[in-house]
Amino acid sequence: MREAIALIETVSVAVGIQVADAMAKAAPIEILDATAICPGKYMVLVTGDVSAVEASLNRGIEVGGDVVVDTLFIPHVHRDIFPAILGATKVTEPNALAVVETFTAAASILAADAAAKAAHIRLIEIRLAKGLGGKGFFCMTGDVHQIEAATEAALALLKKSGNLVRSVVIPRPDGDLWSKVF
């Protein structure tokens, strides 16, 4: 059951793999992603029920020790997070577009969850650190006023943590943009 999500980012690939193993053994969770990310870090992303994900996260932090550089835990994650991370969202009715870019993978997921919970939007994609120099970003679509409200919610969270790189809202994206970018 995908009701919670957790992420651990380490500065060591070797220890990151060890963390992934420890997290999987600690509780019945699903590993969504366990991979090397730029610049030379490792990321483990898991899901499951709230108590299992929390136990898995705690064990991963314990095993990772001083090489853990970022974590996240969202106990009741928005349902659109999973298809956006997996790149499985199809845009059938493109509308306004927002792109929010963050300094960390964890910050992208947290901000996307805040945006999805704040307004009636559709998350399109969440990209996590691969080929991005360790950064992340997410894209969403919806009516302009809903996109603006969702973006404000994401920015409020990111400004508190200092993880905002940039954000843009495009009220009427060109039709070719959708086929090229998504």
Q: Your description of this structure?
A:
The structure is a single chain. By secondary structure, the chain is of the alpha+beta class. It has two domains: 4-74, Alpha-Beta Plaits; 81-181, BMC (bacterial microcompartment) domain (Alpha-Beta Plaits, 2-Layer Sandwich), CATH 3.30.70.1710. It contains six helices and eight strands. It has helices at residues 13-26, 50-64, 81-86, 105-118, 144-161, 175-181; strands at 4-10, 30-37, 41-48, 68-74, 96-102, 122-128, 136-142, 164-170. A four-stranded antiparallel sheet has the order 2-3-1-4, with helices on both faces. Strands 6-7-5-8 form a four-stranded antiparallel sheet. The two termini are 28 Å apart.
Task: Please provide the count of β strands.
Answer: 8
Cα gyration radius (Å) = 16 Å
Class based on secondary structure composition and strand pairing = alpha+beta
Number of domains: 2
The largest β sheet comes out as: 4 strands, antiparallel
What sort of overall outline do the alpha carbons produce when their principal axes are compared?
A: globular
Uncertain regions spanning at least 5 consecutive residues: none
Concise summary:
This protein has helices spanning 13-26, 50-64, 81-86, 105-118, 144-161, 175-181, and strands at 4-10, 30-37, 41-48, 68-74, 96-102, 122-128, 136-142, 164-170. It is an alpha+beta fold and 182 residues long.
Structural descriptors:
182 residues; alpha+beta; Alpha-Beta Plaits; 2 domains; four-stranded antiparallel sheet; 6 helices; 8 strands; 41% helix; globular
